[in-house]
Amino acid sequence: MLVEAGTADAIVAAVTACPAVASLHGGGLRRTATYLPGRLVEGVHVDDDRVRVSVVAVQGVPVAQVAEQVRAAVAPLVPGRAVDVHVADVQVTHPPAPPPA
Length: 101
Hints:
By secondary structure, this protein is of the alpha+beta class. It has one domain: Alpha-Beta Plaits, CATH 3.30.70. It contains two helices and six strands. Strands 1, 4, 5 and 6 form a four-stranded mixed β-sheet that branches. It has a two-stranded antiparallel sheet with strand order 2-3. Helix 2 (about 65-75) links the parallel strand 5 (about 50-60) and strand 6. The N and C termini lie far apart (about 55 Å).
């Protein structure tokens, strides 16, 4: 499937605007990306029937809430396609407290 750059860019903008999302994530062993002429869009993969989005969540937000926000933001941009959300990591803003001595 040929993905229009505008669709991939709109998905990136919608996902990164979600308060529960710290950033997109390109993936590890199974890369999540859209290949466009001359560039790569990390964290978003668009197929004919679904969109995969891989994100880094904000610390303290339940994974279900992250997925819900991302799906709600992306679904109107890709009507008729399922939106799969992968929370690949969590952005730690405060390191955990050391265990008591």
